[in-house]
What does this fold into?
Amino acid sequence: MWLDNSWMQAGLEALRDTLAVDPRLRKQMIEFLLEEGLWDEEKLTWDAAIARWNACLNPRRPEFFKIVEIWALMKRFHRFGLFEAMALDLGFRATAIPTEERLQYILERIAEAHERSAAVIEALGHELSRLDDGAPPRHLGPAPDGYPAVRFRLEGVDDVQGGGF
It folds into this structure.
């Protein structure tokens, strides 16, 4: 078997490391899951939410945390044990990017998005200016002499004559 018990146990320990918190922090984490809509607060009483939390940490129970829940909890509460264990297991070193470097990256993305937005706005401005290009207005009345009238066929209705070009 490729996924053996020791691998599963290491994953469970990493998950527990990420979520093994004191009751105060556990309360904040559960409130976060409820407030963000990851858990349905209309269906869960507080006691049921705590029971669900505990069940998700018990490998003998069918309940489990969804990836989005774990990811959101790790991000919000800066508890990265599972992420670090996964990276190491997959052959990667997970190192935090310094805040200043992340800030520069975000600012670069904002600048690029602004440039793309400005180009789209400029193109739309040119398109808008061409709407009234000085050409005489189009005539949508009856078809001029020599052109056949446009006819439309509607199901269950006789021919209906429309305007010409």
In short: The first strand starts at residue 151 and ends at 152.
